[in-house]
Here is the input.
Amino acid sequence: MMKKLIVLGGGESGVGAAILGKRKGFDVFLSDSGSLKAQYRDLLLRHGIRFEENGHAEIEILHADEVVKSPGIPNEIPIVQRLFERDISVISEVELAARHTDSVLVGVTGSNGKTTTASWIHHILKSGGIDSGLGGNTGRSFAHMVAVEPHPVYALEISSFQLDNIQTFKPHIAVITNITPDHLDRYAGGFESYAAAKFKIAMNQDARGFLLYNADDKTIASRLETHRSPAETYAFSTDQTLAEGAWVQGGEVRFKTRKNSFTMKISDLALSGKHNVQNAMAAGLAASLMQISKETIRQSLSDFAAVPHRLEPVLKIHEMRFVNDSKATNVNAAFYALQSMESPTVWIAGGVDKGNDYRDLLPLVKEKVRAMVALGIDNSRIVGFFEPHVPIIVETTSMRKAVKTAYILGKKGDNVLLSPACASFDLFEDYADRGDQFKAEVKKL
Here is the structure.
């Protein structure tokens, strides 16, 4: 009898899981509480996969042998709770995909930098002649690639939501870039539960695997003191000198594993900023452990192009520089963006507040922000916090108004920075839609 696989959620992750399940001979049914995008509905029809939208048919879902839950769906919703009550296995799409491939997996998680780091690793692997795929929480779903676009190696960005429902997922190389408060609206246990979710990326590793981590992150360092990993472990740091791993010394980044060592100048890195030095360290270490040559790693760390929506230069208009950092969906990411601004800044921020603590931003905002444009349906928390500290704050509810307002408030030589520190789902489909609209409106000025 065919195993019945239910997929909850019909976005990139869910549809990828459904296609893989169908390819592996499961009886697949996909259910989404909302409307499916046309592209995903067409894919399901093309692959002959049964589906429903705008509601969940419990009579079918509760007879599943196993359920794949898309990362955007909380464990707390009623249908998922009923599945737990019936002891029906609920897994993530990355768990399903990993069960059906023998490929080498390089998994990257963290509050910030995971897209850049995973993309940078993929770039180095390709430059080194390795057939590799990039996916997970960025680009194509991991399951979809396993089903229709197999590669011997995958560089995967993995979110905490994807890690919440893993069971046996085990990357050969696991990278934790940093852990700072984010998504606390989804974790009843607060920051500790969120941090524990991030560490699940390494929970199944053994002595044959590798764990790379940011030694400057107090949360990671503290947790590793009490949760030692059996994997071969390397740290990277911009603040400390290390015996092994990657660190900064004399204007150079030094890389050292048990089998390899090399250096390169910080000034040769493709991306600037302390956070990008850390991303480069993680990517370089991972590539070195994958036996990529020193020369290829150095070259790839110097010629990598920044990922879209992450400190992405847009245009310079009347000597005002417009920067798209829409991917900054939490406070720590916005911190890095503001830190990198070298002239007065008009800051466009706001959206869906995820329980944010804005206090860490205050010194940078006082130093660098000339004016603030709040962009969101409910701006009360972010405006309420910064109002005593920013001379001018204007509230807006559309990207067109936000960009025009920022342009009016700015002066010659200023930056106009979209770095929201919040999620995008109040006014936009996702952070990419928000960034694309920003770029489109800037080009209309």
